[in-house]
Specification:
Blueprint lengths: L1 E5 L2 H18 L4 E4 L6 H12 L9 E4 L1 E3 L10 H10 L9 E2 L8 H14 L5 E4 L21 E4 L2 H7 L12 E4 L2 H4 L4 E6 L5 H9 L17 E6 L9 H9 L8
Parallel strand pairs: 1-10, 2-3, 2-6, 3-5, 6-9, 9-10
Antiparallel strand pairs: 4-8, 7-8
Helix pairs in contact: 1-2
The protein binds fructose -6-phosphate.
Length: 260
């Protein structure tokens, strides 16, 4: 696992956007896995700016979703489908047909989960999966004690996550209890995992995920099992890393050709 400490969220966004742009230049039809929430927004803004400036042609890129609320009506502004279309697909100038995600409105949720895992495989697998991290260490919506081998399935949100996400809704009561999320086993199949964490509120979760034992209690610690995982943290989110100085020195000495 590589840990990159950046000064702030904007620098993290720029670094990851450049990694995405580099991937798309090499593989124009790359399948980019995106996360929702507040953390990745600087990445999407920086990538869209590169597209507008003609630094990268993303017109053949494909976008896939990590997770989705269950039961929000189609078109609800806070369904993750709506959010990804609004924050990623449209700013990149892509058509909705370039996007794939699990169906949170399906009557048969289990069948929708299995169909999504199948669709990801048939699409050739995710080239780069961007991840955020919950204050409880979740990735996607794999809450603590999710199986490290899990596939896309329905999960129940913890009260903490519902409270964390209430800011996107009018009240806590409106935050769904259930979600569909790519499983940890599904996420680990992406060719490159890039987790971005910013702000002091993520410092404990980051330290446990990066320097703690691999444990279902901290789902993000599963990144330790992946051969190409990059964790990008701002100074505040890096605040509890014991090896921070080592991570800084390693990145400072990294040959430029390696990229992320
Ligand atoms: C959502 C997702 C979640 C978020 C996490 C952090 O698609 O994957 O794991 O990344 O809840 O959310 P923010 O970035 O809002 O703190």
């Amino acid at each position: 696992m590589e840990v990159v400490i950046v000064p702030d969220a904007a620098a993290g966004g720029e670094l990851i956007a450049e990694a995405l742009a580099t991937l798309v230049r090499r593989k124009p039809e790359a399948l980019l896995g995106v996360a929702t929430g507040s953390t990745p927004l600087p990445v999407y803004e920086a990538l869209a700016a590169k597209v507008r400036a003609g630094e990268v042609d993303a017109s053949r890129a494909r976008i896939c979703q990590l997770d989705e609320y269950v039961g929000l009506p189609a078109g609800h502004p806070e369904s993750y489908r709506s959010v990804v279309l609004r924050e990623v697909v449209e700013p990149l100038g892509l058509d909705e047909s370039a996007f794939m995600g699990p169906d949170g409105t399906a009557e048969d949720v289990q069948a929708a989960c299995e169909a999504y895992d199948r669709a990801l495989r048939e699409a050739g697998g995710v080239d780069l999966q961007l991840l955020g991290i919950g204050t409880d260490g979740h990735i996607g919506f794999n809450e603590p004690c999710s199986s490290l081998a899990s596939r896309t399935r329905i999960k129940t949100l913890t009260q903490q996550t519902r409270e964390d996400n209430a800011r996107f809704f009018d009240s806590l009561d409106e935050v769904p209890h259930h979600v569909i999320t790519q499983g940890i086993g599904t996420i680990l199949e992406a060719r490159h995992l890039v987790l971005l964490a910013t702000g002091e509120g993520k410092a404990d979760a980051v330290a446990q995920a990066v320097e703690g034992p691999v444990a279902a209690l901290v789902p993000a610690s599963a990144l330790q099992l992946h051969p190409h995982a990059t964790v990008v943290v701002d100074e505040a989110a890096a605040g509890k890393l014991k090896l921070a100085e080592y991570f800084r020195a390693t990145y400072a000495a990294k040959p430029e050709w390696q990229g992320l």
